[in-house]
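Researcher: Sequence recovery benchmark, item below. Answer with residues only.
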């Protein structure tokens, strides 16, 4: 299965759970995916703003979380593990109506941990840089047993 199609199925599975990801990132658009790399976009909407009218840091942190997970999915993983560490540097702001470009990369999937890097930008301006580490030992086992819709 093509990497983009696989990542789209994983993302659809996230959305179908109806939790926080679906609430905060329902407008996330997957643009492209290649082994271990995903490019996605999100237009900053009113619900994404903080009280000062800028893109909320919680949203950017959620993007790092989900972006890292989708980059792991792009390594042909159905299950993507659980977060053990997430850090983010807020470099500049983003405003209502701007399109966030989200470049997510899986740096390594090991037997126990996976390491990812996510860069969020608007045009040439870096908005945030994040790193996300996930525990994947049980995900490897689930991946052997799990099938997504249509697989």
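Model:
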């Amino acid at each position: 299965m093509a990497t983009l199609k696989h990542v789209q199925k994983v993302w659809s599975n996230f959305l179908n759970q109806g939790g926080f990801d679906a609430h905060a990132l329902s407008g996330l658009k997957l643009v492209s995916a290649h082994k271990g790399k995903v490019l996605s976009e999100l237009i900053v909407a009113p619900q994404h703003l903080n009280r000062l009218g800028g893109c909320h840091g919680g949203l950017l942190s959620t993007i790092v979380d989900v972006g890292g997970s989708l980059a792991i999915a792009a390594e042909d993983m159905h299950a993507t593990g659980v977060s053990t560490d997430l850090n983010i540097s807020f470099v500049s702001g983003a405003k209502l109506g701007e399109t966030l470009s989200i470049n997510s990369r899986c740096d390594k999937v090991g037997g126990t941990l996976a390491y990812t890097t996510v860069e969020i930008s608007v045009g040439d301006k870096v908005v945030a840089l994040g790193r996300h580490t996930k525990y994947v030992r049980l995900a490897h086992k689930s991946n052997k047993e799990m099938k997504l819709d249509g697989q």
